[in-house]
Amino acid sequence: MIMAFENPLIKEILEKYRRMWAIHHASSVLGWDMEVNMPKMGIQERSVAEGELSVLSQELLLHPEFTAMVEKAAEQDSLSEEEHGIVRVLQRDIKINSSFPPDFVRELSKTTSMATSAWAEAKEKGDYDKFAPWLDNIMELTKKAADYLGYDKYPYDALLDLFEEGLTTSDVERIFSKIETDLKPVLDKILAGDKVPKEHPLEKLKYDTPAMKEVNEEIVRMFGFPLGERSRIDISPHPFTTEFGVNDVRITTRYEGFDFKRSILSTVHEFGHALYELQQNPEFMFTPIIGGVSLGIHESQSRFWENIIGRSMEFAELIYPVLKKHVPEVSQYTPEELYWYFNTVRPDLIRTEADVVTYNFHILVRFKIEKIMINEGIKAKDLPELWNEQMEALLGIKPKNYAEGILQDIHWAHGTIGYFPTYTIGTLLSAQFADYMQRDIGSIGNYVRDRNFEPIKSWLREKIHRYGSIYPPKELLKRSIGEQLNADYFTEYVKKKYL
Ligand code: MG
To answer: I need a labelling partner for 164 at 20 to 30 A (CA). Which of 132, 290, 446, 472 fits?
Structure first.
């Protein structure tokens, strides 16, 4: 029934894999429901249910009969590209899942859940000392995790690879040194000049949620989002995208009641994630190679729609009438003013509030700290000072308390060290993809103006989406654009837009 796969051993593997796929499907539904519908008190039972499902899935994956089949398949030399992809993804999953002894997994999960509640309390009370001992534990456990996973050069490499296959400390260093040397002077120039507004009166404008819902729906319908057919939009405090399968891809958005660009741009962002999943090759359904290949590539798709499309002048012009219809106050502004509202630049202490340009420096601060945490060893008590110094050096502002400084993100409490760089990778890649896209199909802005998104979507499908997870990220880049990640495209994009 699965056309792309002819090899009998691969077919047998896929037959067995279908059960793991089903568990993943079910647990995605549980995860989505937890964020969107579940009453607060449901959390305890839900966590147990999710935990048991993941144990079940791990048992199936690591079953000796299954791993032997995968090993045997890896030795066959008649595999198609897709079949190779299946073997690669499964070997990687098996390796990661079998790296950690059960005691370690238990300890890590206990520590991170305690650390998460300590973090929440510390953040609320502005008391870093409540979190610091937990952060020390997490750093120790994470270093252990890196040792279990194995690495060539630095322990941090093992952690980066977990989130972005093949990514190394040196890769990230190369990317970020460009941000420091090339993008920092551009940011300084933007801030010194008066072309780019640092704030905009529309940030204060209140709106009604039902009206903004209409706006968001009209926008994604213009993009061709198959609402009700293969997708939904719901509401959650932290917007996200989840896919239960190629024909059921869901996004969420948020309505804070003011500063409507947050709701619009976050909807457009999640649309980009969703499109990646919706444009998968349906022949890969039920297999390990369906779905986006990595966090960085995924984020490049969301950032492409958010930044390249959503923050363009043509987009501001396109949605201007829609906005005017639902939020009448907007008629006091011109489309050009709307454009600048979407494109303010100002240093902010909070990462999630940051604009397109300053955002990368927030990630740079975290990368510098993570690298020292893992590769060099540092105590949690010395981190806030480092944080504040870096913020001042890069963005010229200093947190007045821990909540708007080192305690602002939940990531480290969750034990996810090595995740942050994927955000910047996505941002940088989105500009690089845009450049290559325009060489092939011409001005993106013209398509936006004409409300003709098909050529853009089809470029993304042909170059990136249809491959699913067949190739690891670096290989995918080689095939899609023939070049590895290069920060210059983003710097050029920023210069052109703002200077
Ligand atoms: Mg995202």
So the answer is: 132
Q: How far apart are CA 379 and CA 255, in angstroms?
A: 39
Distance 239 CA to ligand 1 centre (A): 8
pLDDT in tens, 118-137: 999 999 999 999 999 999 99
Task: Report the pLDDT averaged over residues 234-258.
Answer: 96
- Which amino acid is it at 464? I
What pLDDT does 1 receive?
45
CA–CA gap between residue 206 and residue 491 (Å, rounded) = 34
Mean pLDDT (the chain, rounded): 96
CA atoms within 13 A on the CB side of 487: 18
Sequence-ordered list of residues with C-beta below 8 angstroms from that of 496, at least 6 positions apart, any chain: none
- Ligand 1 centroid to 269 CA: how many Å? 7
- Kindly state the tokens that stand for 406: 């080192």
Task: Please check whether residue 315 is in contact with residue 267, taking contact to mean a CB–CB distance below 8 angstroms.
Answer: no
Q: What are the beta bridge partners of residue 232?
A: 250
Task: Report the b/e string of 252-283 with b at 16+ CB within 10 A.
Answer: bbebeeebbbbbbbbbbbbbbbbbbbbbbbeb
SS3 477: helix
Q: Ligand 1 centre from 351 Cα, in Å?
A: 13
**Cα 364 to Cα 174: distance, rounded to the nearest angstrom:** 12
Distance 102 CA to ligand 1 centre (A): 31
Q: What percent of the chain has pLDDT over 70?
A: 99
Q: Which residues pair with 249 in a beta bridge?
A: 231, 243
Q: What are the residue ranges spanned by the domains of the chain?
A: 1-99, 118-499
pLDDT-based confidence at residue 51 (cuts at 50, 70, 90): confident
Rounded Cα–Cα distance for residues 218 and 211 (Å): 11
Has domain 118-499 been given CATH number 1.10.1370.30? yes
Query: Residues 299-306: what's their mean pLDDT?
Result: 98
CA distance 158 to 178: 23
State which residues have CB under 5 angstroms from ligand 1, the bound ion. 302
Where are the extended beta strands (E) located within 319-405? none
Angle between helices 473-480 and 295-303 (to 10 degrees): 50
Catalytic residue among 82, 164, 270, 283: 270
* Distance from Cα 241 to the centre of ligand 1, integer Å: 8
Query: Is 270 part of the annotated catalytic residue set?
Result: yes
Q: What are the counts of helices (DSSP H) followed by strands (DSSP E) for the chain? A: 21, 3
Residue 93: count of CB within 10 angstroms of its CB: 17
pTM passes above 0.85: yes
**The token pair that represents 202 in the structure block:** 């529309």
Q: How many C-beta atoms surround the C-beta of residue 129 within 10 A?
A: 11
> How many residues comprise the chain?
499
